[in-house]
Request: fold
Amino acid sequence: MTKLRQRVIDAAETALARQHYVAPIELFSALGWLPVSRAEEWRSGRVPCLEHALPVDARKVTDAVAHLRDWAAARGLTASDTAYLARTRDKRALRFTADGGETVERLCRTHWMSPELSPKRLERLRERQNKAPDLTVTTAEQAWTCAGCGANAGAGEFQLVEDTGPLCLTCADFDHLAFLPSGDAALSRRARKESTLCVLVVRLNRRRKRYERQGILVEPAALDRAEEQCLADEDLRARRRVRDAERRAVQDVEFQARFAAEIVRLFPGCPRERARAIAEHAATRGSGRVGRSAEGRALGEDAVRLAVIASVRHLDTAYDDLLMSGMPRVDARERIRSDIDRVLRGWESAGGVERPA
Reply:
């Protein structure tokens, strides 16, 4: 088996466990070929084809999607042809390859669905994947100039990025809309339903390497109607939030228990209380830690090992003291590497290990 094939299979298995389907576009990201910023450029219609955004040649892309197809066939997954439309006002079809070869284009559009999905859930998933994308504006990271009117704009202002360059809200014909920040799901949902035109607002989180929703632009009258609806059933929604919070808390406890059990399976010498503490820390909802990553939620072995290593680094070595003394992070990690290895070797056996001095 080639190295690429194994990498494709590993990434596909993780995606299938997490979301019950596998998409080639997500596979390219998992392989490290497609940074979130380049994916956004392609989805926004600013790159002629996805191939131009990838650091590998066309042959490697063809091999990857072929490996995915073969794996999916062996696993009995169902092929679902998916529409890819640009986040532009003309909603034009996105292209994957430079030469437009139909075979590879079709494979890149194909999502592989789990046979365990019920017909109803499968249909909902297909509808969501084929839904036309939202019009999207981004918050600028630095000062910029509108390609339409030539006006200068500062960092943080909204821009619609099109082929000719970024447009201000006036040139994009969005200046009559009101901004509704994220935070109230019911209000956002109702305002979106009431508004004839709705525009998604996102911002690039460079640390997490992804675009995050900041809110929506909607018609002011639609926002007023949505607020009136929310005031009418505020008590009911408050009670529902309490029940949902309790349900999520139970789910978190169950997931952390599974995470801790996986730690003990990989490191049988790790004390049970320590494994539970590592799991609680790594798998805290909303923390952004490795336990909440896609691989972590799927209990991938690499994610579990990284969570254990992080705990050992901070609690069983002099790493934090070295940082406080002014040692560069890279040098500090190299200094304590042997201590980490010693602890892990001990935990991988049933006998445990002593803490390093």
